[in-house]
Amino acid sequence: MSTPHEASDDFRPFRHELAWRDVDFYDIQKVEAEMRRVFDICHGCRRCFNLCDSFPRLFDLIDAAPTGELDSVAVEDYKAVVDACTLCDMCFMTKCPYVPPHEFELDFPHLMLRYRAAELKLERMRPDRHYEPAAELAKTDRNGRLGGLAAPLANWASSRHNHFTRPILEFVAGVARGAELPKFGIQTFRQKALDAPPINRTAPAFGRKAVLYATCFVEYNNPGIGLATRAILAHNGVETEICYPGCCGMPQLEQGDIADVAARAKDVASALKPFINSGYRVVALVPSCALMLKFEWPLILPHDPAVALLSRHTSDVSEYIVDIARHEGLAPGLEPLEGGVTLHIACHARAQNMGQKAAELLNLVPDTRIEVIERCSGHGGSWGMRKEFFEVALKVGTPAARQAVENATAFVASECPLAGPHLVQGIERVAADKPLPVQAHPIELFARAYGLGY
User: Fold this and answer.
1) How many domains are there within the chain?
2) HEC per residue, 282-330
3) Whole domain around residue 151: which residue ranges?
4) Do 84 and 59 touch, CB atoms closer than 8 A?
5) How many other C-beta atoms can be found within 10 angstroms of the C-beta atom of residue 123?
6) How many other β-carbons are positioned within 10 Å of the β-carbon of residue 202?
7) Tens of pLDDT along 372-421?
8) pLDDT, tens digit (0-9, with 9 covering 90-100), for 191-223
């Protein structure tokens, strides 16, 4: 994805910097005027009808309007379109013919973000401001620390099979009682990774150095992804360190709290800068976080040198291992994964514009059938677990679930650690009496193929 400066002398798509410090950015009337302009263009095109639920909602509103045009749709109804956007970026990346440098200058996801930012500012100005469950769900570091302190109890209470506590959680936090929720680890990734695995000094890639940006999910919920990554890289001669100054802010971005994201970007970029200056490559373990570091943060803080440096030196974890395979070659030892793998390509991996790196990764495993699904799982971060969106999220993910059932592989994997379990829930609904695949992360499967115990 190009920057405006890179795109000035050609026709590659690019995104404009977010003018979140400007007063007009939050002027709700100006936001709604821009939405009218963009929605009218979308109405005349409709190429995005089969992506997220935002576009069906928009087109249904227009088709049901008295004139059949946008001019008779109430501006109050725009919020329903915004609420359905998961900021997956697929409309911008794969469908829209009108993104910059086209004169129409469409960036649908960032317009939805702007509306949420304006809405959040108005909400914070209200004297009767109320409790917002979605904002509490977005506090992943706080929730991770608290959940880890009482992990067995928290995991029991949050199980979707617990018919006593989940209705209470739905009422208090707005989390759908049937949604699969991430489990908390008793130990964090950094606590589990105190003893570094021995480095294979005979591996072709010996001499590389990588610092693993743990991400909140790997730090608090599934350290196994990080441990598997570290074991794979050590087997391939890569020295690793771990750094986790805090969450990348994707949950806050979904809420429209751009100032909070900017503060996080400054903190994380500052913490990772010494590693970069010492020759380490930053490897992000979750695609949403890699997207933030590579692309979203530079649009929010375009003049911050540490953020720019981090953007240039960050790789997605699958991208990094594939790069080793291409340039130095992998250490031997990979064995087939019996029964094959259905691999879901996460939207935030696709939005990094790097190709299907997880598919390239698993195709390095010999004699293993890899079936790729490049459709939305429907989860969309915290969106898919919220009470008002959970059933819609399952509906959006049904085509992907059906394809997974037809593939009949032993494993199902997604680069997104939230999309994987959500996809399995969809598979449960359409599989009838067929056996369910084992759900794992592609990195965990790659470590398993190496016989590294994950």
Assistant:
1) 4
2) EEECCHHHHHHHHHHHHHHCCCCHHHHHHHHCEEEHHHHHHHHHHHCCC
3) 133-173
4) no
5) 13
6) 8
7) 999 888 888 788 888 988 998 999 899 999 999 999 999 999 999 999 99
8) 999 988 999 999 999 999 999 999 999 999 999
